[in-house]
Amino acid sequence: MTMINTPCLVVDERKTLANIETMARRIAATGCAMRPHIKTHKSPHWAKLQVQAGAAGITVAKMGEAEVMADGGLDDIFVAYPLIGEEKIRRALALARRVKRLIVAADSLVGAQALSQAAVQEGLVLELRCEVDTGMRRTGIRYDRAEEVICAIAALPGLRVTGIFTFRGALLSGRPTHDLQAAGRQEGEMMAALAQRLRALGVDIREVSVGSTPTALPCAAVPGITEVRPGTYVYNDAMQIKYGLCTEAECSALLAVTVVSRPGPDLAIVDGGVKVFAADAPLYTEPYGFDRYGICVGHPGIRLTRLSEEHGMADLEPGEDPAIGEILYFIPNHICTCVNLMDQVLLKRADGTFAPMDVPGRGKSR
Amino acid sequence: MTMINTPCLVVDERKTLANIETMARRIAATGCAMRPHIKTHKSPHWAKLQVQAGAAGITVAKMGEAEVMADGGLDDIFVAYPLIGEEKIRRALALARRVKRLIVAADSLVGAQALSQAAVQEGLVLELRCEVDTGMRRTGIRYDRAEEVICAIAALPGLRVTGIFTFRGALLSGRPTHDLQAAGRQEGEMMAALAQRLRALGVDIREVSVGSTPTALPCAAVPGITEVRPGTYVYNDAMQIKYGLCTEAECSALLAVTVVSRPGPDLAIVDGGVKVFAADAPLYTEPYGFDRYGICVGHPGIRLTRLSEEHGMADLEPGEDPAIGEILYFIPNHICTCVNLMDQVLLKRADGTFAPMDVPGRGKSR
Q: Does B59 touch chain A if contact means CB atoms closer than 8 Å?
């Protein structure tokens, strides 16, 4: 057993590869393409394996992530975020020249106009997808105004509108739900119908891109949907367990922490707090109601109920008695934000050896 | 006006220096020493200025932070966290050889025994403080068992117990409170009384170290308290405003984000989410009840009520109409965890120029 220096995120290579292959196979069976979001692993290593498993390309949120992925050898990148600001547009134009395919995004006419102007000035044509809000009230053109705005964007020079996309997660009629089949179908059907209306208006919509890990499969099954963008499935987390999408054994990234204090029989303190556990609740906590910061593997009676910056306070049920110095493993609630705290993770290879692995996309929010 | 590439934490040099000087002067007036916790800025640059302003030394939580600070020229370091595990003890012994003064911590006999054994083996004597729990139910020897455990620790070879310490924050009789004077007094009086009892038992307690930013001043005023360890005051944040400890103008680190989407008249989306805002609630949210993720400077009607990883959703009251591309500045709720997300901050110098500044202590949780 390698000595693990805690706190540390331990990534199981075999399980991660299995997660990548399983999702690729399931989506392929629907005939839909897949463009995984790298926000979970933030690493070109896994992104390349996702492409090898059949992904059409990758999705990122920010230009900084796109640049890290391009540096790592990825050459078909969708930046699924409204591209706003001179500096970011300049970087997008530079990146468009050095990768095989860069797709940028807009959700407003004013945003698209700035992109159009810059592209024309550089003598480039940028491939663009328009983001549509299908109920999350986040970015995206309001669904009821989508035709009007997208037609205006499609008329701009220097841009080639090839698709529409949305992100809604597990919402049904705008409300959180456990009925992922119905949520995915609704999201897919709204987007497929919009794509048809846009085509009737003369906009050449080729890609209709939707979905998250929870809704990827039901979305992919909707006729007219061409692409899904799941991310979390690569490692999985406690949220995906609660959605019924994976088992504990399929969670491939575990946070290893050491018990540093046992103030009493019912309390253990571990050496990880907010700075290593993902303390962000999911956007909609209802009806999931997390009661703890992660699941302690093999110890359902160890409940991590409070976090401060460097401390995790675990309430112990009778029978749980971890010693000072003992390492505990937790499945984080939200693996994406957990990984974002790590400069490195520890890869547990299929042969049982361990190797540190950088997370070059960490913190690349610009 | 320099173009700020968002999301970005902008640190005002003049205000930060003023915060450092004001706290140093106030604590000095009580006759108490000060050993600021570097967990807020995580940077040797500010730590050295805190020492220049009169601090007796610095406090860190983890060995990784201690090493970063030693590399940056700090030579009197207290690691205020139970030191558990062979690897960390080995690093502490190595660091003890290269700085003027290293103080380590224990809150259990078993933890202290491992330190003792390693120190004896290396032919070193480690200076040690014992942590005591005064009501937070975090690390620390239970107050009612403190004499027994500390006397046993003090008898171990290779260790020199010179002090006791606690962290309780704004708790009064274990419950969150706004009465910081009473909370600080109670925390201080408990520790001063314990120190007296330990001295009567023959343990040479020289340092009685307490306090956080909220309770530093009332703690420092308690007879018998020799040292306080505030951290957050260096930048301040929305929590400190709610405690009544500072004004908005004294918050010296602001998160700059750009409006990237305006889906409707009552909603603006900014380009910072959980990955740049501190999404962790304080350990005890009652009775403070945060209703938003940060305070929008100059715009009380812009309420950042939802975050996802890269998106901040701001509800707009009538009269608020930020344009796409506009930069907004937010005071984060919890500046310490916000800084921990940043590889760099942008220093706004007293002369109005800007310079990137590394955060070498970021993520050093091991």
A: no
